[in-house]
Amino acid sequence: MEVTVQCHRCGSALPVSAIDESAQINCGRCRQAFLLTFSEAVRADRQVDRCPVCEGSDFWRRKDFDPKIGLAVIGIAILISAGFYYVGLDLMAYIVLAAATLIDLAIYGRLRDLTVCYRCHAEFRGAYERTAGAFDLHTADLLEPEYERKVGIR
Q1: 56 and 74: one domain?
Q2: What is the predicted pLDDT for the residue at 71?
Q3: DSSP characters for 100-118?
Q4: Sign of the CA dihedral 60, 66, 67, 68?
Q5: 65 vs 33, 137, 141, CA distance in Å?
Q6: Given a cut of 80, is residue 151 above it in pLDDT?
Q7: Do 80 and 56 sit in the same domain of this protein?
Q8: pLDDT score for 99
Q9: Do residues 58 and 117 share a domain?
Q10: pLDDT of amino acid 55
Q11: What pLDDT, in 10s, does the model give residues 82-127?
Q12: Segment 142-150 mean pLDDT
């Protein structure tokens, strides 16, 4: 299983393979040290049961795609569509928006899910069984500040 740890000091993404029981990694940007403790289920790529960073057990599931890229694609389609609309080609403007939406939906449907920790935002990728539910804002509002206080952000 591959785990992407987010540095709580500078926000860098740090990919790690869950091979050993414990590992220490250092952020390449700010040199923050992280001690990770992987559970047996995570090492065996069976299930995400405990986060190796914050040791939490609350997770949510999302598609393995950077939302910024999706927003950029839709933003470009909106600008192109606005250009067509400006010159009076309303039908072409709507066709561009519809095509961008269909392309976005096709890509979204083909992507795999990944599991994300509510507290530290560690991301888990692998062939394990996906048991986490959808994102819950109330849970995030409770658990994120708890971890931020623990590491000294808040």
Answers
A1: no
A2: 85
A3: HHHHHHHHHHHPPEEEEET
A4: positive
A5: 27, 20, 23
A6: no
A7: no
A8: 92
A9: yes
A10: 87
A11: 999 999 999 999 999 999 889 888 888 899 999 999 998 999 998 8
A12: 87
**pLDDT for residue 154 is more than 70:** no
Tally of domains within the chain = 2
Report residue 10 as tokens.
């500078």
Question: Same structural domain for residues 11 and 38?
Answer: yes
Are 82 and 37 found together in one domain? no
Judge whether 130 and 123 are in contact, CB under 8 Å: no
Between the CA of residue 22 and those of 14, 113, 152, what are the distances in Å?
Answer: 15, 25, 23
Q: Which of 16, 24, 23 is nearest to 123 (CA)?
A: 16
Contacts of residue 139, defined as CB under 8 A and 6 or more positions apart, other chains included, come to: 58, 60, 118
**Do 86 and 121 belong to one domain?**
no
How many CB atoms within 10 Å of residue 66? 9
Residue 22 has pLDDT above 80, yes or no: no
Domain with 52 in it? 2-62+113-151
Assess whether 45 and 118 both reside in one domain. yes
Largest CA distance in the chain: 63
